[in-house]
Amino acid sequence: MATTTKAIRIKETGPAEVMTFEDVTLNDPGEGEILVCQTAIGINFIDVYFRDGTYPAPQFPFTPGKEGAGVVEAVGPGVSEVQKGDRVAYSAADGSYARHVLIAASKVVTIPDGVDDETAAAMMLKGMTAEYLLRRTYKVGPDTTLLFHAAAGGVGLIAGQWAKHLGATVIGTAGSREKCDLALKNGYDHVINYREEDFVARVGELTDGKKCDVVYDSVGKDTFPASLDCLKRLGLFVSFGQSSGNVPPFPLGLLNQKGSLFATRPSLFNYTATREDLVDCANHLFEVVKSGAVKIQIGQSFALSQAVEAHRALEGRQTTGATILTVD
Predict the structure, then answer these.
(1) What InterPro entries would the database entry show (predicted)?
(2) With 11 labelled, which of 164, 194, 251, 323 sits at a CA distance of 20 to 30 A?
(3) Before 248, cis peptide (omega within 30)?
(4) How far apart are alpha carbons 239 and 181 in whole angstroms?
């Protein structure tokens, strides 16, 4: 029989206040689907992009969110990946801001012992993003010097610890002394307060003019094209978000002028497009967290019904680490 649950709904794009908390009805799981009773939900800037219209909405009304964790409550026909009662997490499904979610079984992974649900919900999208950025977009190692913008953010805190675990020299940027201090406690060798210092000049000083092998930039408009000036010849610019607005169009010749640079715009979706890639990515994340090399920082927690307040905090850059919704 159908399940009646509570969810955040968006009927039109706009500010945080367009989100409402309503009853919704979900069908029974179909072929290859499972029903998950959620315990915790991850919040990410991509949720803001869909809410405010930066990214096109799948339809209206819709439930935002891509990431969550919980317990499998029902299993549809043809499901072999998980069974009823399993603890699962996911990072690439639509509609996670809800007490229950209907999802393809192929998109979830089983949470191992030693990782609690809130940690799993907080780290799947951010942690798997860090995994592909550091291990596949650019293979970070002991010879790598990197710059990571938004070092005190959810991805930034995970990436700092993981990059240091891989032996890299890790430089970050953040917007306050408190955030700089937090990043320094999470793997970064140096953190630049971009409100007080010219980060390009400071990177030059910190690297004795050699600059960085790779720059990871989820800020976008505010840090471009300055990020390119932090790269050594043949360096890689990785744009994986745009919290301040889109990177403006630029001529490809600019990459040549600044040192025959490379540029890429990756996404977790493409790096986990197959079941094999998804499980491999998640397993590497679980392993590094269980080992203690990477600790997940949950900076803020809001009830599901407080999603508006959570988005206000995120957009106001008032958050550190991961932000989650708990199911109320």
Answers:
(1) ADH-like_C, ADH-like_N, ER, GroES-like_sf, NAD(P)-bd_dom_sf, QOR-like
(2) 323
(3) no
(4) 25
